[in-house]
């Protein structure tokens, strides 16, 4: 686990001189002049201490004003640790720009054992967002035999230690999800996911129940997908956070995550084959909700939360399911399998029906790398959100903007519903009747068949769960999308 703590330090200059690097924010004003951001008197003290006029120094670099632009100034003063000042551009001083600035600072000190204090943000939520992003920018994952072992530590100047504790917990949770996603599928099979969940549950005193083998008799979708693999078979992993004390009408949220540890497509093998190499991340939904539960155990909101990790490997073998098979989901709905590469909705259907029929959730949320079509529609910066609950959609969009995991409310288009008809089962699963395209929409319409009358939200994160480049807050690979969103939503319900 790679993790760098974000910590509070008092507002006195002596405290920040114990860091190796002091990062000071700058921004362009409307009139084209430059200003330093961050706590004003402290920034002035830094200038006095080092005998520097930082705006003068800045002019030397001819900055563009883009958030995340960073200039290094070597400083030396006896009896201090500080050897560098980073002048970091905070763009328009908005929260998203403070995130980019944080990520740039983190990226600059990756794998180095360096203490960095940032004086970029002032306001509580901005400090939190900026602090989280420093950790996210510093994140790396590799299995290189000569991997660098250094770990930066990040500090911000604040008296609100709770705010920073929360930032630390959230950053840790996103890194945890990223670690799970980056782990390759020769290590990460459904049984491995269960052992990770068990470890977290033990450490954080969460409830856990894992079903495998005969225990999955009623989970026709999970079995049909997961029994294709010669690796240990599919796992249904249920983890619970229950607040202390008895309270009437406490809300219960159930999160369902797609946990396909590798998606070959099965008999409907993925083509072209290089599209398969990203498919170790097909468990990003499950990774996100496991990490969210781990964080909730520390944040202790007064909400009951259950996470259902639907874990299976979609392999190609003699025991793979066939296109044309008919399976029976939890609760009895029958489905005709058309394309075995649309496996995500089959495992989710069992999870959603289980939640609806046995857990009585007030809110039912699923999160899944479900369709390539979601990436075509929105790219990688937004998750596709489906729900008929307009008020809930509005609040989740706002939480998305605030947390950094942005969502776009997509339509559940009833006109496409007949695509799910089947001559031999209740539904066909790839919506192959008719010619509607809109693969992310029809996948959502399929899932809706399993949620009863619940207040349900479906998050298709196929695009946002993975970054194809090392840029902004994300490394190349798993982003941990959904972790900040769900933690923010649940803790502010
Ligand atoms: N895991 C994929 C979706 C995906 C694609 C995630 C690219 C991330 C990046 C999913 O299981 C899948 O293959 N979906 C098919 C469904 C189709 C066969 C109806 C798709 O989207 O092409
Ligand atoms: Zn697939
Ligand atoms: Zn998949």
TrEMBL record:
Which named protein is this?
Unannotated protein
Pinpoint the Cytosol aminopeptidase domain residues: 339-346
Its cellular-component GO annotations read: cytoplasm
**What keywords appear on the UniProt entry?**
Aminopeptidase, Hydrolase, Protease
- Organism the protein comes from: freshwater metagenome
One molecular function GO term is: metalloaminopeptidase activity
Return the similarity comment: Belongs to the peptidase M17 family.
Q: Is Protease among the key words of this record?
A: yes
Pfam families from the entry?
A: Peptidase_M17
A single GO BP annotation from the record? proteolysis
PROSITE patterns per the UniProt record, alphabetical? CYTOSOL_AP
